[in-house]
Amino acid sequence: MTSQTLPLNLIPKGVCPRLYVSQYDKGQEWNFDIYAGTEAYTIPSGSTVTIQGTKPDKTGFQYACSFSGNRVTATEQQQMTIIAGDVPTEIRIEKNNEIIATLNFIIAVEKAALADDTVISETDLPLIEEAIEVLGHADELVQRIEGDVTTSGNNALKAEGFAVGQQNGSDVASGSPYYHNSAKYYKEQAANSASTASNKASDASGSASAASGSASSASTNALKAEGFAVGQQNGGDVASGSPYYHNSAKYYKEQAADSASTASTKAGEAAASAQAAAQSAAHLTIDSAMSTTSENALQNKVITTTIQNLSNQVSSLEEENGYYNLCPPLTNILTGTGISWQLKDDMSSVANGAATSMNQIATEMFTLEAGTYKINGLPSGGGTSSTFKMWLLDFSSGTETALVQMTSTSDYTFTVTADNKLVLRADVYKNYTASNLNFKPMIRKSDRTSNTYIPYRAKNLKLTQKTIGLIDNQNVNGAVNMIYPIESSKTEGGLVYTLNEDNSLTISGTPNGVSGFAYRNNNGAFLRGKSVRLKINPSTQYANNKWYVAFIFRETEGGSNLARYDLELGGSNYQDEKVVTVPANTNYIMVQFNLNGSTVALNTTVKPILAVESYDGPYVPYSGKSNKELTEDVASLEDNKQPKFISAGDSVTSCRITFTSGHGGAQGSLALVVVDGGFVCLGFWSNKWQRAWANVGQSETVTSSDNDANGITLTFSTSTTVYVLPIYDADGCVITKIT
Q: What is the pTM of this model?
């Protein structure tokens, strides 16, 4: 059973998740992992979970689901996929007949190529299979079509023989099987029987009645025979409504002749197509190398271009995702005078000036996956203590350890574990004069042969993580109200503070001491220098009690106040709204309700808002995550992770490449095998993995064998490194070295 897994969140993120299926599918297992924000949501014991939705025809469905922990499991039913289009669907969680959670998503039903009730023509063969069959059996097809023509002609002669005892307009010989078996013969025999019956009637008066009946029956049979033979009775054509009209031997003879003519025409057309196909098949053996100019469309213009595009995409993936050059740029100036450094657009670093002391510049600290690598990029003319060098340093032990000292432009090989904390440093020694001295550090995996400089590109995940720390990424995204409570309901100083579901606060009771309740915003840095509006929105005003709200700005959470503004919510100085400018250096904004020992009873609900100055609307609860939180969510998305090549490890001359056990593949599954000097494309069709194409250089060849639903064995003429990039529906790839 196949399955899909879709994460669903109790906190909507604006884009409804989509589950992609095909029309008429059923039986697939669907797993839904439920989250509340970034935390897994545990479904309460005793809950009832259902999946329900509305199809494009406005009819609905509802089915029970199972669950465990935060995972809900449903089985795909045909009613869910019976109609193509978007099906709004929800997972509903109920307990004690109350709905405690709903999670919406879309079942995107892709329209089937062939509807369930479509009548399939017997002559409509799948085009690809027909092309393969024609190419592989062109001569056989011509012979078979010619045989069909011959058979059609023979059937026409048989029809004529059984109808009137003739073939091609001439009477058949007395020894022919049609001589005594034609409709015409039986008609004549029926007529003879009628005459004989009449004679017998005159000779045997006692049998007159019976003979008369026989004669009548024989006459009737004669009419039937004539009708079924030539579509006539008593010499005249039968009416169009007669059962003999379309059921006479003569009619079928004519139809057989027409069919033979049509078959002959079709045979000629098919023969011409087969001949053209055979010529195309002959073309496939002519080209000895890949080409984009050959007139052989199937082999070269289509396959070559497609595979070359895939190869280009792989190269693009390597460069764009930092797969090739794994060395960050030299950006951290450590020490030195006299040298100026410039970071170029290609991430290389240029030094200019006369060094009056040791000058050093380094990369940020980075790690590599465990393995063996090569490093290069030192400019020519260096390598001594009076010129310049580069060092690859390891700080895993807490102190500096030199892994590589680079004194030439050559490649240097080194091995690391995943725990190594690495820094690359460039040194320009005292008294050396640098003139456009260009350092181009490049670290690549040891099996990458080219040492031509490729700019460093940070991985998508790393870039996303970096944006989390940007100052303008701390803002609350899409939220009108930018403060939230940091306390829960409590009783203090004679008052009951009840925090409501919408984050408003109900205060009741008679104060007998000092008490308070706090709201906060931790992203004040984004608001520095901006005008903001604080609104309290109390449901009831009190003229005599003394209570107020303190509006506090701080650099650190427990530090001294940068500024404080008070709103008095009672008495003659009543004020429940204020616009102020956020001080520089603000990181924390506190909103603190304070009440003294007034004896006036309170029963009011306050709805505090901290918003931009321009907002003067009604109360809106705190909503939305900060950009920081949203960016962290993006960083965890599967399609934001580094694309992975699967490596064979050592060089091989023969290897077995398999995919997920029991995978079985699907028509169109695709994987690209990258080898020294070229590539091999693997595809899945006819229920097994097959080599679709190969381009491994002029001096190498590749053969395939032992291919089945799980994988394929490749053998190369010379030893090569092997990497596999799963492209589509090729999960769980494993490369096993044979030799």
A: 0.30
